[in-house]
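lol forgot to send this yesterday, sorry. struct tokens for the thing we talked abt
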């Protein structure tokens, strides 16, 4: 039940985080789609394109003012001529920059129209300048010059304002995007962390269940499945290496009486005391398992018949000598044992098991509390 709960919790966590990551990704995607106008637009270069002619507009005004005082100054005429040459180039530069930008044409068209009308009036101003150079008074030049200066100043100022506000919007978009992506990354990290945690928990649960499936809960020994898992391997190793493998089957005598006389819990206590005694008497390399009920098994790798007989006799005596206190019941218990050692005739583990079982049967039928070697 617990495992099912943990597994569904793991799935729920994973699903929840995946949904969250998906929604965050969609939100960032939708935002990107709507904000694409602002992404990648280089407003800095455009602002520079507009600021430069704004400076020239100021220069144009100051030059016109100087004309009032020194209309025939050649340097002044040359500077003005140079400005007249630059103005259309700036207008063309700004027009090109805006056409390449992601700005909606409707937002800047009226300012460009105003600049283009300035461009159209430049030949007249050039003619007025030539007249001033040939000695005419500068009044007309100043009047026409101030008109275009005013038009340019207004158009460039509006454009500058437009570009600054678009750049500010771009900054907001980028900031929001950065926050969105940070949240997305956080959710993905949480998702990965949550999934890892769920996997680790599942792995622990799996190991626990696996252990429980191979363990006898009452005695803490391996169960029949554990014994079968291990012994097939031990048997094959023994067959390959030629080293002996001995197997003892043990069955408590008249155990039913213990249950009948002292109750089932007392019987359980006896089984536990018996398992402890068994483990005390065998080596670490030996395998001890409870096969079911009051039947146990000891597998002794690299132990010949003689050595195994010594061990099982020791076990038998130890069990018979268990005190009432150790057993938890006011009676003695004994055990019958059947012993077999693998030889060339044992083609499978089942064969060896069959021999040990037969020996145990003989130990039971010939009076119990004894070892019979097959
Ligand atoms: N307390 C307890 N008793 C168990 C457990 N498993 C099996 N038993 C009991 O063990 C008894 C085995 O009885 P039998 O198969 O007749 O064997 P026995 O009385 O030991 O007689 P022999 O084996 O012929 O000497 C039964 O009463 C089962 O109920 C257990 O986990 N706990």
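and heres what i got for the seq, position by position
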């Amino acid at each position: 039940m617990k495992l099912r709960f943990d597994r569904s919790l793991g799935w729920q966590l994973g699903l929840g985080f995946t949904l969250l990551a998906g929604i965050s990704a969609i939100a960032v995607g939708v935002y990107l789609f709507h904000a694409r106008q602002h992404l990648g637009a280089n407003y800095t270069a455009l602002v520079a394109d507009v600021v430069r002619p704004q400076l020239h507009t100021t220069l144009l005004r100051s030059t016109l003012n100087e004309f009032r005082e020194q209309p025939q100054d050649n340097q002044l005429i040359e500077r003005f001529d140079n400005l007249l040459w630059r103005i259309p180039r700036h207008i063309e530069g700004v027009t090109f920059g805006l056409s390449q930008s992601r700005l909606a044409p409707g937002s800047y068209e009226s300012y460009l129209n105003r600049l283009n009308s300035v461009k159209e009036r430049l030949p007249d101003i050039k003619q007025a300048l030539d007249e001033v150079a040939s000695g005419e008074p500068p009044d007309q030049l100043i009047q026409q010059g101030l008109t275009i200066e005013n038009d340019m100043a207004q158009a460039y100022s509006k454009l500058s304002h437009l570009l600054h506000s678009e750049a500010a919007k771009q900054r907001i978009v980028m900031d929001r995007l950065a926050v969105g992506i940070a949240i997305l990354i956080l959710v993905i990290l949480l998702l990965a962390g949550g999934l890892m945690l769920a996997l680790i928990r599942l792995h622990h649960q799996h190991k626990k269940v696996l252990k429980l499936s191979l363990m006898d809960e009452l005695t803490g020994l391996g169960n029949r499945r554990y014994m079968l898992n291990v012994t097939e391997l031990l048997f094959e190793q023994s067959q390959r290496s030629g080293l002996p493998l001995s197997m003892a089957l043990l069955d408590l005598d008249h155990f039913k009486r213990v249950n009948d006389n002292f109750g089932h819990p007392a019987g359980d206590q006896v089984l536990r005391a018996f398992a402890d005694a068994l483990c005390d008497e065998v080596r670490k390399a030996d395998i001890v398992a409870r096969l079911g009920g009051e039947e146990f098994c000891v597998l002794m790798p690299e132990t010949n018949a003689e050595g195994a007989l010594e061990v099982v006799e020791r076990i038998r005596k130890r069990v018979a000598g268990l005190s009432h206190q150790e057993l938890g019941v006011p009676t003695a218990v004994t055990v019958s044992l059947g012993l077999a050692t693998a030889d060339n005739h044992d083609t499978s583990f089942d064969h060896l098991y069959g021999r040990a079982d037969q020996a145990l049967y003989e130990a039971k039928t010939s009076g119990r509390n004894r070892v019979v070697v097959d």
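The radius of gyration is 50 Å. anyway ping me if u want another try
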